[in-house]
Design goal:
By secondary structure, this protein is an alpha+beta fold. β1 and β2 form a beta hairpin. The longest helix is centred in the N-terminal third of the chain and has 14 residues.
């Protein structure tokens, strides 16, 4: 690591948490684990939370306690967003304008839709910011269980038999299917 004034230059890490999915609370616990264990002697940490209403906030304060609702009440929090423009990174906003903060890496500690489904990974790919975990393509396939099944089938890997139905299929199809399953019970519905 390069040094400046005999001090190591810290890498800038964003821990992204919260989100609008039903798994918001799980995300807070995951992010809390990262924040409790990250080496702040090596890294400058930017904890960015996405509130349930979709607003992004840089969580600032004495500690990084993320208990449900606690982090959102911190008066020092300020709006922040990730810019898809590869030259910026994190845009920190205040009443005085905005500041661009270069990021070396993002920990996307988001769960569920708009978190681990490739959405954030795609944004980070556009922005040119490395992230921890799977990239966009693997996230999309892993989150969409039908796509996962198709890929696994194509690779010749054994798996449970499956049928794909959506809310757009006719109700008669569901009833007929229940009576004439091409495989035996028990079944799992995902």
């Amino acid at each position: 690591m390069a040094k400046k004034d005999n001090k190591p230059i810290k890498k800038n890490i964003c821990v992204l948490f919260g989100g609008v999915s039903p798994e918001h609370d799980v995300s807070l616990r995951s992010a809390q684990t990262v924040l409790d264990n990250i080496d702040t002697d090596k890294y400058r940490v930017f904890p960015v939370g996405i509130r349930r209403d979709g607003r992004w906030m840089l969580h600032q304060g004495e500690n990084w306690e993320l208990g449900e609702g606690i982090w959102e009440l911190n008066p020092g929090n300020s709006p922040a967003v990730l810019s898809p423009d590869g030259s910026y990174g994190l845009l920190l906003m205040s009443s005085k304008g905005y500041k661009m903060q270069r990021l070396d890496c993002v920990f996307p500690m988001l769960h569920g839709k708009n978190g681990e489904d490739g959405s954030i990974q795609g944004l980070l790919q556009l922005a040119g910011i490395p992230c921890v975990g799977c990239g966009m393509e693997a996230s999309v396939v892993g989150m969409n269980k039908y796509l996962t099944k198709l890929v696994v089938k194509e690779l010749g890997i054994r798996q449970a038999e499956f049928i794909h139905l959506t809310k757009y299929d006719k109700k008669e199809t569901w009833a007929e299917l229940a009576e004439n399953l091409p495989f035996a019970y028990p079944v799992f519905v995902k």
